[in-house]
């Protein structure tokens, strides 16, 4: 249980949590994705970011590992990512 909000969760907070997103390579995807994550999790170091291009080079996936503080924080991150047109998929 998350003791700060009383919500049920399979995770124990705080914990390291990878947020994976996919977008187009030629867009502002990376900057937008990091800005959304930082709005909820604070500054992100480059060592917490992994970028992998697709095999055809048209898309890129970004995995950002954050120190998640609650399920509510993760829900807010995914809600904002899903609402942005630059983010094609958020996992």
Account of the protein in words:
This protein is an alpha+beta fold and 91 residues long. Helix content is 29%, strand content 30%. The protein starts with 14 loop residues before the first strand and ends with a strand. The model has no long low-confidence stretch (mean pLDDT 92).
Overall domain count? 1
Could you give the distance between the termini? 22 Å
Give the averaged pLDDT, no decimals.
92
Classify the secondary structure makeup into a structural class: alpha+beta
Question: Count of DSSP E strands?
Answer: 4
Beta-strand percentage range: 25-35%
Specify the helix fraction band.
Answer: 25-40%
Low-confidence stretches: none
Could you tell me the radius of gyration in angstroms?
Answer: 14 Å
The outline comes out as globular
Major sheet summary line: 4 strands, antiparallel
Which key features would you list for this structure?
alpha+beta, 2 helices, 91 residues, 4 strands, single chain
Topology:
Elements: E1 15-24, H1 29-41, E2 49-53, E3 59-68, H2 71-83, E4 89-90
Antiparallel strand pairs: 1-3, 1-4, 2-3
Compact summary:
This protein is α+β, with helices and mostly antiparallel strands and 91 residues long. 29% of the residues lie in helices and 30% in strands. The protein has one domain (26-90).
């Amino acid at each position: 249980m998350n003791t700060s909000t009383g919500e049920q969760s399979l995770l124990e907070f705080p914990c390291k949590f990878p947020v994976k997103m996919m977008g187009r390579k030629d867009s502002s995807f990376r900057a937008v994705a990091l800005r959304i994550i930082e709005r909820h999790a604070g500054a992100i170091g480059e060592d917490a970011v992994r970028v992998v291009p697709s095999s055809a080079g048209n898309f890129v996936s970004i995995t950002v590992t954050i120190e998640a503080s609650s399920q509510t924080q993760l829900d807010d991150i995914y809600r904002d990512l899903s609402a942005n047109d630059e983010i094609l998929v958020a996992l």
